[in-house]
Amino acid sequence: MAALLSLIIPGLGQVYAGDLYKGLALFAALVVSLCLIALIIGFFTFFATWIFAVSDAYKMVKKTK
After folding, report:
1. Is residue 42 within 8 Å of 25, Cβ to Cβ?
2. Is the pTM higher than 0.85?
3. Cβ atoms of residues 26 and 52 within 8 Å
């Protein structure tokens, strides 16, 4: 469930798993990446942030079970 939430909105899975600050940081990184798309580098950081958020949310929930 956490990975699915992060797939929809990066950082939401971390909030669901109980780490509010990490979730907010990932969401902020995504917003910054969106702003950087105008400078081309944002394309790389945007997708890297998104993939990290999904995999990290999955790992966080798996650790707690």
Report:
1. no
2. no
3. yes
* Structural contact between residues 10 and 26, judged by C-beta atoms closer than 8 angstroms: yes
Show the tokens assigned to 16: 């669901």
Is the Cβ–Cβ distance between 53 and 33 less than 8 Å?
no
> How many angstroms separate the CA atoms of 59 and 34, rounded?
25
Length of the chain: 65
Two structure tokens written together for 41? 């580098």
pLDDT in tens for each of the 65 residues of the chain? 888 888 888 888 899 988 899 889 999 998 888 887 777 776 778 888 888 888 888 888 887 76
**DSSP structure class, residue 1:** -
- Cα–Cα dist 56/45, whole Å: 16
